[in-house]
Structures are given as structure tokens and as C-alpha cells.
Write a structure and sequence with these properties.
The chain has one domain. The protein is built from six helices and two strands; from the N terminus they run αααβαααβ. It is mostly helical and about 140 residues long. About 50% of the residues lie in helices and about 5% in strands. The longest helix has 23 residues. A two-stranded antiparallel sheet has the order 1-2. The N terminus is likely disordered. The radius of gyration is 17 Å and the shape is elongated. This is RDD family protein. It is a multi-pass membrane protein. Keywords: Cell membrane, Membrane, Transmembrane, Transmembrane helix. InterPro entries: Pra-immunoreactive, RDD, UCP021697.
Amino acid sequence: MPQNPSSRSGDIAPSRYPGERLGLPEAGPRSVGRAGRRIGAIVVDWALASVISAAFFRYDPLANILIFAVMQIVFIPTIGGSIGHRLFGMRVVPIRGGWVGVWRPIVRTALLCVVIPALVWDSDQRGFHDKIAGTVLLRA
């Protein structure tokens, strides 16, 4: 008799929605922040960094990236996410709960600035930068 493929040891059943494997709800507060919100948040953050860069550094691309990074590193542990995250009703939290700390925003931001890790997502819609930092972006 054929064995059910999902019952083999070591196999993980497919998720019905992003965040299910993490024990998160499908929708509403504490659900995984979806792509639209994430993209909107990063556009807001990049625009703010661009305005600051233009005002003080004549829009120097390196200054723009550094300003963006500093905003992420400062605001994630202090207000729970970047300005864009908060405007789009999201927050960054560690998978295991508690305070996000200092090192997670630094690691997450360094990988986010490289761009490629942010484009590689898993079935829970967590970017590689979130997986490495042990964080998840949730709806507030």
C-alpha cells in the first residue's frame, strides 16, 4: 500500500498560508506582513533616506544607503520597526518573542542593504535577511 508522502519522517506538511508553520494567524494582528505592505514600507523608508541625503549630501548614493541603514538600525529596536513599517501597520519581532535587541537589526539591515537576501523569500514570506536575523515582520 502506498505511503502518504506527507507522513514520512522528516517531511514538513505544506502550509496553507504564510506564517502557519510559525504558529501565526492567517490574517489580522500578528499575521505575517504581506508583500504589498513590505514594498510600501521600504519605498517610504528609501524616500525618507533620499530626502535627507538630498538635503545634506546632494543626494550621494552612499549617504543614501547609510542613512537608510541607520534609520533601520535605530528604529527597529526603539519603535518596533522602521518608519515605513509603522506607517503600514507592521513591526519586526524575533521569532522566539521578546525584545528584538541590537544585533538583530544590524544583521537584518546589513543583509537588506545587499538587496538580494530581501528578494529571496520562504513559504512564510520571510526574506533571507529575516531568517538569518531570526525575525519576522508582522502586522501590528
